[in-house]
Protein backbone atom coordinates (compact mmCIF):
# COMPACT_ATOMS: atom_id res chain seq x y z
CA UNK A 1 0.00 0.00 0.00
CA UNK A 2 1.40 3.38 -0.98
CA UNK A 3 2.55 5.68 1.76
CA UNK A 4 0.56 8.81 2.53
CA UNK A 5 2.97 11.67 2.86
CA UNK A 6 2.13 15.07 4.25
CA UNK A 7 4.68 17.87 3.94
CA UNK A 8 4.50 21.06 5.95
CA UNK A 9 6.89 23.88 5.15
CA UNK A 10 7.72 27.18 6.73
CA UNK A 11 9.82 30.10 5.61
CA UNK A 12 10.84 33.18 7.46
CA UNK A 13 13.42 35.81 8.17
CA UNK A 14 15.70 35.96 11.18
CA UNK A 15 17.93 39.03 11.35
CA UNK A 16 19.75 39.25 8.02
CA UNK A 17 19.17 35.59 7.05
CA UNK A 18 16.27 33.76 5.47
CA UNK A 19 15.47 30.23 6.57
CA UNK A 20 13.38 27.30 5.35
CA UNK A 21 12.05 24.40 7.43
CA UNK A 22 10.28 21.35 6.00
CA UNK A 23 8.63 18.56 8.05
CA UNK A 24 7.35 15.39 6.31
CA UNK A 25 4.88 13.00 8.00
CA UNK A 26 4.79 9.36 6.74
CA UNK A 27 1.45 7.83 7.83
CA UNK A 28 2.39 4.30 6.77
CA UNK A 29 5.23 4.03 9.24
CA UNK A 30 4.23 6.66 11.78
CA UNK A 31 7.54 8.42 11.24
CA UNK A 32 8.41 12.07 11.00
CA UNK A 33 11.15 13.20 8.68
CA UNK A 34 12.67 16.56 9.58
CA UNK A 35 14.67 18.30 6.88
CA UNK A 36 17.14 20.63 8.63
CA UNK A 37 16.83 24.38 8.15
CA UNK A 38 18.57 25.75 5.11
CA UNK A 39 19.93 29.24 5.55
CA UNK A 40 20.52 31.61 2.66
CA UNK A 41 22.98 34.42 3.00
CA UNK A 42 21.82 37.89 2.02
CA UNK A 43 21.78 38.06 -1.76
CA UNK A 44 20.04 41.24 -2.85
CA UNK A 45 21.13 44.73 -1.90
CA UNK A 46 18.99 47.61 -3.16
CA UNK A 47 20.44 51.10 -3.46
CA UNK A 48 18.04 54.02 -3.78
CA UNK A 49 19.07 57.28 -5.38
CA UNK A 50 21.60 55.42 -7.48
CA UNK A 51 21.85 58.15 -10.12
CA UNK A 52 22.90 60.69 -7.48
CA UNK A 53 26.50 61.37 -6.52
CA UNK A 54 26.48 59.39 -3.27
CA UNK A 55 24.28 56.51 -4.44
CA UNK A 56 26.26 55.98 -7.64
CA UNK A 57 29.52 56.00 -5.65
CA UNK A 58 28.12 53.31 -3.34
CA UNK A 59 27.12 51.22 -6.36
CA UNK A 60 30.65 51.46 -7.79
CA UNK A 61 32.11 50.31 -4.49
CA UNK A 62 29.68 47.41 -4.17
CA UNK A 63 30.49 46.13 -7.65
CA UNK A 64 34.00 45.45 -6.34
CA UNK A 65 32.57 43.41 -3.48
CA UNK A 66 29.53 41.41 -4.62
CA UNK A 67 28.26 39.82 -7.84
CA UNK A 68 26.33 42.25 -10.03
CA UNK A 69 23.23 40.05 -9.96
CA UNK A 70 23.02 40.56 -6.21
CA UNK A 71 22.78 44.33 -6.64
CA UNK A 72 19.67 46.30 -7.55
CA UNK A 73 19.14 50.02 -7.94
CA UNK A 74 15.94 51.96 -7.36
CA UNK A 75 15.75 55.23 -9.29
CA UNK A 76 13.04 57.69 -10.28
CA UNK A 77 14.00 57.51 -13.96
CA UNK A 78 15.54 54.18 -15.09
CA UNK A 79 16.37 55.73 -18.48
CA UNK A 80 19.09 57.78 -16.77
CA UNK A 81 20.95 54.67 -15.57
CA UNK A 82 23.96 53.94 -17.75
CA UNK A 83 26.21 50.89 -17.75
CA UNK A 84 24.58 48.90 -14.97
CA UNK A 85 22.02 46.66 -16.72
CA UNK A 86 24.69 45.48 -19.15
CA UNK A 87 26.70 44.18 -16.21
CA UNK A 88 23.78 42.35 -14.64
CA UNK A 89 22.61 44.96 -12.11
CA UNK A 90 18.84 45.05 -11.70
CA UNK A 91 17.32 48.48 -12.42
CA UNK A 92 13.81 49.34 -11.29
CA UNK A 93 11.75 52.48 -10.96
CA UNK A 94 11.25 53.58 -7.38
CA UNK A 95 10.04 57.01 -6.33
CA UNK A 96 9.85 58.03 -2.67
CA UNK A 97 6.89 60.21 -3.63
CA UNK A 98 5.08 57.14 -5.01
CA UNK A 99 5.15 54.53 -2.23
CA UNK A 100 3.45 51.90 -4.42
CA UNK A 101 6.42 51.96 -6.81
CA UNK A 102 8.76 50.95 -4.00
CA UNK A 103 7.12 47.56 -3.52
CA UNK A 104 8.28 46.47 -6.97
CA UNK A 105 11.59 48.33 -6.70
CA UNK A 106 12.46 46.56 -3.43
CA UNK A 107 11.19 43.10 -4.40
CA UNK A 108 13.45 40.36 -3.04
CA UNK A 109 15.60 42.83 -1.11
CA UNK A 110 17.56 41.65 1.90
CA UNK A 111 19.15 45.03 2.55
CA UNK A 112 18.01 48.44 1.35
CA UNK A 113 19.93 51.71 1.45
CA UNK A 114 17.51 54.63 1.81
CA UNK A 115 19.44 57.60 0.49
CA UNK A 116 18.19 60.84 2.02
CA UNK A 117 16.42 63.26 -0.32
CA UNK A 118 17.45 66.84 -1.03
CA UNK A 119 14.36 68.42 0.51
CA UNK A 120 13.68 69.50 4.08
CA UNK A 121 11.01 69.29 6.75
CA UNK A 122 8.14 66.89 7.22
CA UNK A 123 8.02 66.01 3.53
CA UNK A 124 11.58 64.67 3.66
CA UNK A 125 11.02 62.80 6.92
CA UNK A 126 7.82 61.23 5.57
CA UNK A 127 9.52 60.10 2.37
CA UNK A 128 12.46 58.56 4.23
CA UNK A 129 10.27 56.69 6.68
CA UNK A 130 7.88 55.58 3.92
CA UNK A 131 10.79 54.08 1.98
CA UNK A 132 12.06 52.32 5.11
CA UNK A 133 8.61 50.89 5.78
CA UNK A 134 8.34 49.68 2.17
CA UNK A 135 11.65 47.86 2.62
CA UNK A 136 10.37 46.22 5.79
CA UNK A 137 7.10 45.25 4.09
CA UNK A 138 8.89 43.28 1.34
CA UNK A 139 10.87 41.39 3.97
CA UNK A 140 14.21 43.20 3.96
CA UNK A 141 16.36 42.07 6.85
CA UNK A 142 17.99 45.47 7.41
CA UNK A 143 17.40 49.06 6.35
CA UNK A 144 20.30 51.48 6.00
CA UNK A 145 19.74 55.24 6.00
CA UNK A 146 22.12 58.05 5.04
CA UNK A 147 21.95 60.46 7.96
CA UNK A 148 24.41 63.05 9.22
CA UNK A 149 26.81 63.21 12.12
CA UNK A 150 24.59 66.00 13.49
CA UNK A 151 21.03 64.87 14.22
CA UNK A 152 20.28 67.32 17.03
CA UNK A 153 16.61 68.29 17.06
CA UNK A 154 17.48 71.85 18.11
CA UNK A 155 20.30 72.37 15.61
CA UNK A 156 20.28 75.58 13.52
CA UNK A 157 21.28 73.41 10.56
CA UNK A 158 17.87 72.54 9.13
CA UNK A 159 18.78 69.07 7.86
CA UNK A 160 19.88 67.87 11.30
CA UNK A 161 16.45 67.66 12.98
CA UNK A 162 15.10 65.97 9.84
CA UNK A 163 17.71 63.23 10.18
CA UNK A 164 16.95 62.86 13.87
CA UNK A 165 13.22 62.59 13.23
CA UNK A 166 13.79 60.06 10.45
CA UNK A 167 15.87 57.86 12.74
CA UNK A 168 13.09 57.90 15.33
CA UNK A 169 10.48 56.83 12.77
CA UNK A 170 12.64 54.08 11.31
CA UNK A 171 13.24 52.72 14.80
CA UNK A 172 9.46 52.51 15.30
CA UNK A 173 9.03 50.26 12.25
CA UNK A 174 10.66 47.32 14.00
CA UNK A 175 13.01 46.18 11.23
CA UNK A 176 16.75 46.03 12.01
CA UNK A 177 18.27 49.32 10.88
CA UNK A 178 21.55 51.18 10.58
CA UNK A 179 21.85 54.94 10.29
CA UNK A 180 25.02 56.18 8.61
CA UNK A 181 26.11 59.22 10.65
CA UNK A 182 28.08 60.75 7.77
CA UNK A 183 30.43 63.67 8.25
CA UNK A 184 29.86 66.91 6.34
CA UNK A 185 30.68 66.45 2.63
CA UNK A 186 34.06 68.05 2.01
CA UNK A 187 33.35 69.11 -1.58
CA UNK A 188 30.99 71.79 -0.22
CA UNK A 189 34.08 73.70 0.92
CA UNK A 190 34.72 74.43 -2.76
CA UNK A 191 31.55 76.54 -2.92
CA UNK A 192 32.51 78.46 0.21
CA UNK A 193 36.08 79.34 -0.81
CA UNK A 194 35.10 80.44 -4.31
CA UNK A 195 36.93 83.60 -5.28
CA UNK A 196 39.26 83.60 -2.26
CA UNK A 197 42.44 83.03 -4.27
CA UNK A 198 41.53 85.92 -6.59
CA UNK A 199 40.67 88.43 -3.86
CA UNK A 200 43.06 87.21 -1.17
CA UNK A 201 40.18 87.22 1.30
CA UNK A 202 37.98 84.46 2.70
CA UNK A 203 34.97 86.40 3.94
CA UNK A 204 32.46 84.19 5.73
CA UNK A 205 30.30 84.22 8.86
CA UNK A 206 31.71 83.16 12.20
CA UNK A 207 32.13 79.39 12.28
CA UNK A 208 33.43 76.51 14.37
CA UNK A 209 35.26 73.21 13.76
CA UNK A 210 33.87 70.93 11.05
CA UNK A 211 35.13 67.43 10.22
CA UNK A 212 34.91 67.82 6.44
CA UNK A 213 34.80 64.31 4.96
CA UNK A 214 35.16 62.99 1.42
CA UNK A 215 31.93 61.74 -0.11
CA UNK A 216 33.82 58.95 -1.87
CA UNK A 217 35.28 57.77 1.44
CA UNK A 218 31.80 57.78 2.98
CA UNK A 219 30.47 55.77 0.04
CA UNK A 220 33.26 53.25 0.52
CA UNK A 221 32.36 52.95 4.20
CA UNK A 222 28.70 52.47 3.38
CA UNK A 223 29.58 49.69 0.93
CA UNK A 224 31.56 47.85 3.61
CA UNK A 225 28.58 47.86 5.95
CA UNK A 226 26.09 46.92 3.24
CA UNK A 227 28.18 43.99 2.00
CA UNK A 228 29.22 42.63 5.40
CA UNK A 229 28.62 38.88 5.44
CA UNK A 230 28.05 38.62 1.68
CA UNK A 231 30.43 36.93 -0.77
CA UNK A 232 33.12 36.61 1.86
CA UNK A 233 33.09 40.29 2.84
CA UNK A 234 33.86 41.14 6.44
CA UNK A 235 32.49 44.10 8.29
CA UNK A 236 30.77 45.17 11.48
CA UNK A 237 27.04 45.41 12.08
CA UNK A 238 25.73 48.55 13.74
CA UNK A 239 22.24 48.43 15.17
CA UNK A 240 20.91 51.96 15.06
CA UNK A 241 23.28 54.90 14.49
CA UNK A 242 26.89 54.29 13.53
CA UNK A 243 29.68 56.21 15.25
CA UNK A 244 30.39 59.51 13.48
CA UNK A 245 31.88 58.64 10.09
CA UNK A 246 34.44 61.41 9.71
CA UNK A 247 38.02 62.37 9.08
CA UNK A 248 40.27 62.40 12.16
CA UNK A 249 40.44 66.21 12.38
CA UNK A 250 37.88 69.03 12.51
CA UNK A 251 39.00 72.42 11.19
CA UNK A 252 37.75 76.01 11.10
CA UNK A 253 37.85 78.41 8.18
CA UNK A 254 40.83 80.06 9.85
CA UNK A 255 42.59 76.72 9.32
CA UNK A 256 41.29 76.49 5.77
CA UNK A 257 42.56 80.00 4.93
CA UNK A 258 45.99 78.98 6.24
CA UNK A 259 45.95 75.77 4.18
CA UNK A 260 44.94 77.60 1.01
CA UNK A 261 47.78 80.05 1.59
CA UNK A 262 50.24 77.21 2.06
CA UNK A 263 49.00 75.28 -0.97
CA UNK A 264 48.89 78.22 -3.38
CA UNK A 265 51.73 80.33 -1.99
CA UNK A 266 49.35 83.30 -1.87
CA UNK A 267 48.33 84.86 1.43
CA UNK A 268 44.61 84.40 2.11
CA UNK A 269 43.15 86.53 4.88
CA UNK A 270 40.18 85.16 6.84
CA UNK A 271 37.62 87.83 7.68
CA UNK A 272 34.35 87.42 9.55
CA UNK A 273 31.21 89.10 8.23
CA UNK A 274 27.79 89.28 9.84
CA UNK A 275 25.17 86.64 9.12
CA UNK A 276 22.75 89.04 7.44
CA UNK A 277 25.50 90.63 5.37
CA UNK A 278 26.66 87.23 4.13
CA UNK A 279 23.09 86.16 3.37
CA UNK A 280 22.54 89.30 1.30
CA UNK A 281 25.80 88.75 -0.56
CA UNK A 282 24.78 85.21 -1.41
CA UNK A 283 21.30 86.09 -2.67
CA UNK A 284 22.61 89.13 -4.56
CA UNK A 285 25.06 86.83 -6.36
CA UNK A 286 22.19 84.60 -7.49
CA UNK A 287 21.98 81.92 -4.80
CA UNK A 288 18.40 80.85 -3.97
CA UNK A 289 17.48 82.20 -0.54
CA UNK A 290 16.48 78.78 0.91
CA UNK A 291 19.87 77.34 -0.07
CA UNK A 292 21.69 80.36 1.37
CA UNK A 293 19.74 80.10 4.65
CA UNK A 294 20.51 76.38 4.87
CA UNK A 295 24.23 77.11 4.54
CA UNK A 296 24.00 79.95 7.06
CA UNK A 297 22.48 77.43 9.45
CA UNK A 298 25.60 75.32 8.94
CA UNK A 299 27.79 78.18 10.16
CA UNK A 300 25.51 78.79 13.14
CA UNK A 301 25.52 75.10 14.06
CA UNK A 302 29.30 74.91 13.67
CA UNK A 303 29.68 77.72 16.21
CA UNK A 304 28.10 75.55 18.86
CA UNK A 305 30.18 72.50 17.95
CA UNK A 306 27.59 70.45 16.06
CA UNK A 307 30.18 69.17 13.54
CA UNK A 308 33.27 69.09 15.72
CA UNK A 309 33.09 65.41 16.68
CA UNK A 310 35.58 63.06 15.02
CA UNK A 311 35.94 59.30 15.20
CA UNK A 312 38.28 56.63 13.77
CA UNK A 313 35.37 54.43 12.61
CA UNK A 314 35.44 55.50 8.95
CA UNK A 315 39.16 54.84 8.57
CA UNK A 316 38.72 51.45 10.23
CA UNK A 317 35.91 50.58 7.82
CA UNK A 318 37.76 51.48 4.63
CA UNK A 319 41.15 50.25 5.82
CA UNK A 320 43.02 53.52 5.26
CA UNK A 321 43.10 57.09 6.43
CA UNK A 322 40.24 59.13 4.95
CA UNK A 323 41.17 61.95 2.62
CA UNK A 324 42.36 65.00 4.54
CA UNK A 325 40.95 68.48 4.10
CA UNK A 326 44.35 69.54 2.76
CA UNK A 327 44.13 66.92 0.00
CA UNK A 328 40.56 68.02 -0.74
CA UNK A 329 41.62 71.66 -1.02
CA UNK A 330 44.55 70.76 -3.27
CA UNK A 331 42.16 68.94 -5.56
CA UNK A 332 39.63 71.78 -5.53
CA UNK A 333 42.35 74.30 -6.28
CA UNK A 334 43.81 72.22 -9.08
CA UNK A 335 47.21 71.61 -7.55
CA UNK A 336 49.05 68.58 -6.23
CA UNK A 337 50.75 70.47 -3.39
TrEMBL record:
Q: Which InterPro entries match?
A: NAD(P)-bd_dom_sf (IPR036291), NmrA-like (IPR008030), NmrA-type_oxidoreductase (IPR052718)
Q: Which segment of the chain is annotated as a signal peptide?
A: none
The protein's matches in Pfam families, at most eight in alphabetical order, are given as: NmrA
What residue stretches are annotated with the NmrA-like domain? Answer: 43-301
Name listed for the protein in its UniProt record: NAD(P)H-binding protein
Amino acid sequence: MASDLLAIGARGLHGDQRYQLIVIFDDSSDTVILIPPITKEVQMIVITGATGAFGSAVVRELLHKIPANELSVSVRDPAKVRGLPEHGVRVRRGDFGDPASLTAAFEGADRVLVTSVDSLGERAVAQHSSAARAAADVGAGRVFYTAHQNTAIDSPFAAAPDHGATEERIAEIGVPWTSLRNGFYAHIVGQLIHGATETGELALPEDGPVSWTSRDDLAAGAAVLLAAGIAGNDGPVFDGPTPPLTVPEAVTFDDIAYLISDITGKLIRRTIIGDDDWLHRMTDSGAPEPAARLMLGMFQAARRGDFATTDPALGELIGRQPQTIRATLASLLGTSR
